Amino acid sequence: MTRFIIRQDSSGETPSILFDELRIGTSYSDVTPTTLSNADFISDSFKLYPNPSNSGFVNITSTGLGAIQTNVFDMLGKQVVIDTTVVNGRLNVSDLNAGIYIVKLTQNNSTTTKKLIIQ
């Protein structure tokens, strides 16, 4: 496209043009919305409880099959639990101080993160 012209030929004194949505592209796929990512689906397939936790462990369940790898990060980004495989659906967090952590969960090449609060 080399030019784009909008022309108003109204005889009214206050002509106006309203665009609800304008998409400009060089192909159909450029202007056609794509499907949403699977991020929400992946995130919802993992459950982390109890949260907040004060029992020294959290349960991690998934709708998928296979081992769940976990990595836990503090709020400064320091990895405090490294590549732990969840055994019997439980993750030992008894060594963690009270605070907020980010738990990275990976199963069958799907990865998501969850917030974990330790009391």
Task: Please outline the helices and strands.
Elements: H1 28-31, H2 39-45, E1 46-49, E2 57-62, E3 69-74, E4 79-85, E5 90-92, E6 99-107, E7 110-118
Antiparallel strand pairs: 1-2, 2-5, 3-4, 3-6, 6-7
Features:
119 residues, mainly beta, Immunoglobulin-like, 4-stranded antiparallel beta sheet, 2 helices
Mean pLDDT: 81
Total number of helices: 2
Strand content: 35-45%
Q: In percent, how helical is the residue content?
A: under 10%
Write down the CATH class of the domain at 39-118.
Mainly Beta
How many strands? 7
Largest sheet: 4 strands, antiparallel
The structure class reads mainly beta
Task: Characterise the protein shown here.
The radius of gyration is 25 Å and the shape is elongated. With 119 residues, it is mostly beta strands. It is built from two helices and seven strands. A four-stranded antiparallel sheet has the order 4-3-6-7. The protein has a three-stranded antiparallel sheet with strand order 1-2-5. The model has no long low-confidence stretch (mean pLDDT 81). The protein has a domain at 39-118: Sandwich (Immunoglobulin-like), CATH 2.60.40.
